[in-house]
Structures are given as structure tokens and as C-alpha cells.
Amino acid sequence: MQVKSMFFKQNAAAKLNDAVLQRNMQKAKGKFVDGRAKAVAEVENWEAIRTHAAALRDKCLANLDAYLIEFEANATRRGAVVHWAETASEACDIIVKIAKDNGVKKATKSKSMVSEEVNLNERLEAAGIQPIETDLGEYILQLAGEPPSHIVAPAVHKSKEQVADLFVAAHHKPRLTEIPAMTREAREALRDHFLTADMGISGANFIIAETGTTLTVTNEGNADMVTTVPRIHCVITGVEKVIPTLEDFASLIRLLPRSAVGQTIANYLTLTTGTKMPGDQDGPEQMHIVLVDAGRTKFIGTDMQEMLRCIRCGACMNHCPVYQNVGGHAYGWVYPGPMGSILTPTYVGLENAGDLPNAATFCGECQVVCPVKIPLPDLMRKLREQQHERHLRPWSERIPMALWAFAARRPALYSVLSKLGARFAAWLGGKDKLIHSLPGIDGWTHGRDMPAPEGRTFRELYAQRRGAR
Amino acid sequence: MSARENILARIRRQQGRSGATSAEEMELIRANIRNHASGPLPNAARTADVMGQFKRECDRLLTTFAEVNEAEVPREVARFCDAAGIGKSVAGWTAYADWDWQGAGIHYAGRAANKDDSVGFTGCFCAIAETGTLLLLSAPDMPKLNALLPETHICVVRKHRIVHTMEDALALVRAEIGEPPRSMFFVSGPSRTADIEQTIVIGAHGPYRVHVILT
């Protein structure tokens, strides 16, 4: 996907003024937040499971090379072919070559964010291979020619009326507006594709070193069609997805669907190991697994390594007040919300995604809900520090920060300035104690008033109370 | 250098390690794998009432269930199909082809399901009480498609094959089968989607109905 993260501010402003999007986003947010809260409340030792999961992901990352080698050996032993791709483009080259070598005309796909990262569909189409997205949300977006705006619910920004219009254009059938009937129409439209595709392309939620197994998690059952019916199964996934054992899969799967959508378990978990075995009536003859780096190894051994624990549940964006208001497209790349504010600058360069680490209120909710305890606000803060050090922020931000830092290191000066500031702000507030316009930074007061302070600083009040005792 | 070598070398460089991954390092992670350490389990996974837990979770998943003797299974399938208003033509695993289907008025074809089948019949390797999950393993006479393509999936579950947790199910696979077969398929209720306006719809690409017959 083309990076548009440098336009975050403009895009976010446009999204805030998009009435349809605002309505669609408001509908969605309560469902995710309430659903997760209920599911998590049922698990009395949720914290213990989270702590275990974070430690086990750290363990994988500490020996990532060895776990990948072990995975490769076991997958190969079971008949899969393991490919390695350093870049997005290499990953596409590998898959296009597999498809061409085997005369593939059509490939069904279950949802894969890595395939979005590397622009796989575009490359397949350019090579004359028809990619068919089969996750309902991804299918809708393929019809719309849009990228996903959420990693779990890709079409969360679309209303059913918008979907109905897309279906009329694609299916040439009378317009339906009841969601169950629309879902059935999509099921019927995709059935033939499932059964006639030469190749199935899936992502992997995890890959398991012990057995050379890949995992897909879905509610729709589409990944099972994609990995079972076509004669070739191709998995595209990131190198950080490896976990040691089947037991580790059991631990992590207690967290993933609950955190993502508030389900105790997803409807279909499929562990796929190697090719069709002798006598099997279903399953592919070839299995290919493409392990993609494309920026992931850059995180290792740095301040950002904890981000690689991520199991892609989307809870951080579901609970983010910024995401809830601007939606996923404003972030300008595959991964929106707090996770994207760390992944995107590291993958595509801080200079291309400068606003993302700043698109946060630091309310801390993302860290609270993260099933693998990624300290997302801390990581964003570190990226802000890097921006400051590399002079990537505008002077209008750097100069006030430098002035503030100068004063903050001089307590007496700070005391005087903050007293003046508090009194000035109280005066600005006037009788109704509301500041309607802030000189120089009126963006803050555009569309809202700022409550004025009382006119005295914390330190003054503190000194007064100590004196009164 | 190949992409593989470059990626592995970069990981080690970033970790501040030199040279290629050593035999000792490989042995260290293999020893960790051999431990098969389980993580913390929630209370629901430790309940004494395994059957009650399984049924509660089935209810939540909208999986329906019935308890009958093995000889009664075909009649239960017929009853379910009548109640659901669907035809009594069933594509099922060959292992069950010699049951008295005809006596129950069912046309039973022992084969993999295709797109025209409306009812698929399967057994399962075991079931998991914690989440109301069925585990199907791939094998020549156990095609997965019977649990996936038809709009109705009916699954016979032996009561003594209901285990507490996912970990128990995985241990059972290791003990009885060894390495995982090509597909380990964990089914928890009928397929669903919420991709249009986050409205849950039952019946996406997989079955609309999952019915468990406990024997």
C-alpha cells in the first residue's frame, strides 16, 4: 500500500468533517469496547495470562533466528517450501513466480495484512492473475477499490447503504439492504471462486516452530476454503509471527479473539501443516510459506522491539480516542491506530510519518487493553524524542518546546512565568471563565472553548495549604 | 548471500550477536520446545462439570446439541433436519456409512461434501469444554469439506472424548497421533461475520447450523 502518512493532519481534518464516516465510526466503537470488556471480565486471571503471553513473545524475539530456523526445518520436513523475502517487492516476486510456474489464473485470498503491506493484489493483477478477496470486509473493499481501515474489521468505515451500492454494481442483482441477505448474496458470489481457484493465499496469525505449522483464525470460514480447496496453498506472513509450541498457541488464542471482538474463541482456528497426505480427499498438493522481513528486523535490539510482540488484535485502535474519531484511512498506511503510529514510522521512515506518534492523547488506554502488554505510549514518546533529536518537527513546535525546557530547568523563573500565565489565562476567560480564542494557537479553540484556570498556580495553592496547617 | 542468510544475519547483528546461529543456541530453543510448558488456565478450564461447561459454551456459540444412544443417531439427524426444514440427503464420513440411515429415512452418501450438499455429517477427534469447540483432524476418510461446505454441519461427539482445554486436546493429539496431521480444524459454532456495520450475521462462508449429537 502506498504510504500517505505524511498527510495525516490534512486527512484527519477531512475525516472529521465527513458526516457519513463519523456516523459509521460512532456505531462501531461501542460494540468493540463493550464486547471486549465483557469477554475479559469473565476470565478471572486475565492479567496472569497477559503476563505469560508477553513473556512468551519476548522469548521468541530473543531467539528469533533460532526459532525461524527450527520452523523452517519442520515445515520443510512436512512438505512445505519455505521462502524468505527481505522486501515487499521480493515477497510479491516469489508469489507471482509460484503462480506463473503453476499456470495459476485465479487466486482466492483470506485476509492478510502483510499482503496489503506488500501490494500483493496489484502485483498479481499485473501478472495476469486474478486475486479474489474472500473475507466479507475485504471483498467489499476490493469492489470499492479501497484499502482496509481496520486490521480486524476492514470495512468498518462503510455503511450498509454504501455496501448495497457496491453489490448492485458487482452482482447485477436487485438492491438488498438487509444485512443477512446481503451477506448471503456475497456468500453465493464467492462460492464458485472458492471451488475454481488454482491457488489459495492466506496470512498466518502465528507460525509454530515445533511442528512447522501455520495458523489462520477466522469467523467466516473463508480461510478454511482458501487453505483446503485449491491445489496450491501459499502463506504470506511476517518473520516475527513465530511461536515455539502448540501450547503457546493455546495461551495466545485465549487472548486474541477476546481482545479483538469480545469472543471467547473465533469460530474457526485452523492449524495447517504441510501438504495433502497420501489418500487425503482434500488439501493442497503444494504448500509455500513466504516469510517476510520488510522492516521487521529493524525493531530488534532497539527501543522498539516490544512492538514485535503484537498479535494483531486491533484492541489498541478500538480503544483509541483518536482512531475512534478519524478512522483508519487518515493514518495513511496499512496499520492504523496506536500500533500503526509505531509500525508505520519504523517501517517507512519517521520522516514520512511524522504526525503519527503525535496523533495520541496519551490517555494510555491502548497499553491497558493490549493483550501482550506493549507499552504503546512509551514507544510513541520515544519516537517523539527521536523526531526532536533529528530535527524533524517544525520550528513552531521546536521553539516553544525549547523555551519551555529552558524555563523548566529554572524553578524560580518557572514559578514567575507560570504565575503570570495562570493570571493571564484567568483574565482571558473573563466572566464566563471560558477561553473562546487562544492567541497564536487558535486551532485549540476552533469549535470548542477552553475552561479558564482559577488564576493561581498549583505551587501557590500548595504553599498556602502548608502554611495553614 | 540469499535473502534467508541476510535476514538471519540482520537479526543476529541487531541482537548484538556474531556469527551464525550456533548448535548450542538451537539446542536451547529445542529444549524449551520439548518442555511444552502450559500457560495459566482460567477457572472455566478447570471446572469439575465438563459436560455442563461444554453445553453452556455450545449455547453461547449457537451450536445446538442432543444426547442419544449411538443406535439412535440417524433418527436424531432425521429429527433435526425435519425441525430445521431441510432435506434429508446427507454427505458424511465413510466410517459412519454402515449405520441404519435408511431406517431413519435418510439418504447417506459416504464421501467428501461438494457444493450441492446441504447437510454434512462428521465425527471429531475430541471436543473442548472450555470453549464448546470441536476438533477435526484431517485423514483420508475424514474430509474437512463435510464440516465446511454444506449449510448444515452435524457432528457426533463421544462424551468420553470431551476434554477440558485446548492444551488437553493438543496433548491427546500428541499421545494418539504424534505429529499434527495436515489440518487440525477447531470448529466453534456456525460461521459468522460482522463485517457490515458490526452486525453479527450467522452463516458466512461456512455452515449456518452446527448440531452436535452427544453419544
Count of DSSP E strands of chain B? Answer: 12
State the strand order across the main sheet of chain A: 1-10-7-4-2-3
Strand content of chain A: 5-15%
Q: Note the run of SSEs of chain B as H and E.
A: HHHEHEEEEEEEHEEEE
User: What share of residues of chain B is helical?
Assistant: 25-40%
Q: Please, what is the average pLDDT of chain B?
A: 96
Walk me through the structure.
The complex is a heterodimer of chains A (469) and B (215). Chain A has 469 residues and is of the alpha/beta class. Helices cover 50% and strands 11% of the residues of chain A. Chain A has 20 helices and 12 strands. Chain A has helices at 8-16, 19-41, 46-62, 64-77, 88-101, 113-117, 120-126, 136-144, 160-171, 179-196, 222-228, 246-261, 315-318, 321-326, 337-348, 365-369, 376-389, 395-408, 411-429, 458-468, and strands at residues 80-85, 106-109, 130-133, 199-202, 206-208, 213-218, 232-238, 242-243, 268-272, 286-292, 434-435, 450-451. In chain A, the strands form 3 sheets. In chain A, strands 1-10-7-4-2-3 form a 6-stranded parallel beta sheet, sandwiched between helices. A 4-stranded mixed beta sheet of chain A has the order 8-5-6-9. Chain A has a two-stranded antiparallel sheet with strand order 11-12. In chain A, a hairpin with a 4-residue loop joins strand 5 (206-208) and strand 6 (213-218). In chain A, helix 9 packs across helix 10 and helix 15 (337-348) packs parallel to helix 17. The longest helix of chain A is centred in the first third of the chain and has 23 residues, at 19-41. By secondary structure, chain B is an alpha/beta fold. In chain B, the strands form 3 sheets. In chain B, strands 1-12-7-4-2-3 form a 6-stranded parallel beta sheet, sandwiched between helices. In chain B, strands 8-5-6-9 form a 4-stranded mixed beta sheet. Strand 9 (268-272) of chain A pairs antiparallel with strand 9 (183-187) of chain B, so a sheet runs across the interface.
